[in-house]
Amino acid sequence: MDSPSPRWLTEEEKLAWLGLVSAMVRLPAALDAQLQRDAGISHFEYQVLSGLSMSAERTLRMSELAQMSDGSLSRLSHVISRLEKRGWVHRTPDPADGRYTLAVLTDDGWDKVVASAPGHVEAVRALVVDPLTRTQLRQLTEITRRINHAIDPGGTCTG
């Protein structure tokens, strides 16, 4: 029994795919470089701190924070350990259900997010928002929503 032949990409599809791959590699590196240079933290660390800063009482279950920051629980645990050493986060058992651990943003962590956010937002504007028209930005929103849904039909992908 013959297997079906691959559905090779057309030239147009290949150009779109290679452009997306390039952006997926280069954008995180550029954001990481800006945050390392200006704030001494990685992009993932910023995502974690920012996620906590936007949560009620600056607190989230570790599992929710991992999902919000698009990282594994293992990766998050290592990052939280580093952030704890800097005094920006602390962990505590969830009083509602002791099986869970909460990550809590400290006042120093809040100050770090507040100090880091302006430079990060400027980098996001310069690299993603400003080069696009309003129509392209709306299209990008829809494109990333569709891609994220194809990756995770259950809806745990953000965006």
From TrEMBL:
Pfam families linked: MarR
What are this entry's molecular-function GO terms?
Answer: DNA-binding transcription factor activity
Gene3D superfamilies the record matches: Winged helix-like DNA-binding domain superfamily/Winged helix DNA-binding domain
Ranges for the HTH marR-type domain? 11-149
InterPro entries in the cross-refs: HTH_MarR-typ (IPR000835), MarR/SlyA-like (IPR039422), WH-like_DNA-bd_sf (IPR036388), WH_DNA-bd_sf (IPR036390)
Q: Name one GO biological process term.
A: response to stress
Q: Which PANTHER family match?
A: MARR FAMILY REGULATORY PROTEIN (PTHR33164:SF99), TRANSCRIPTIONAL REGULATOR, MARR FAMILY (PTHR33164)
Q: What is this protein called?
A: MarR family transcriptional regulator
